[in-house]
């Protein structure tokens, strides 16, 4: 797995209103939310980046009033997959 390290100047970090004990996890979550909001990453990658379960990330999107990236095409694919799954039962 590849990772990326960001250097954030200490002067910037001192102004961040996040307790030091939560700094890394909160910044990862905020980055994941923003990238998802801007449609730069998928839901799956966003919840992984945020180190959250799918359900937890769905709730967080709701709390922040960030719309899900789900359109008619996604719905049609889900319906096709559901029909195939039912047929296989």
Task: Report on the architecture of this protein.
This protein has 89 residues and is mainly alpha-helical. It has one domain. Helices cover 60% and strands 0% of the residues. The chain contains five helices and no strands. The longest helix is centred in the C-terminal third of the chain and has 17 residues. It is elongated, with a radius of gyration of 17 Å. The model has no long low-confidence stretch (mean pLDDT 91).
Q: Any descriptors?
A:
elongated; 89 residues; mainly alpha
How helical, in percent, are the residues?
55-70%
Number of strands: 0
What fraction of the residues are assigned to beta strands by DSSP?
under 5%
- Helix and strand element order: HHHHH
Give the overall shape.
elongated
Would you kindly provide a brief summary of this structure?
The chain is mostly helical and 89 residues long. The chain is 60% helix and 0% strand. Helix 2 runs antiparallel to helix 3.
Describe how the helices and strands are arranged.
Elements: H1 10-13, H2 23-37, H3 43-49, H4 54-63, H5 72-88
Helix pairs in contact: 2-3
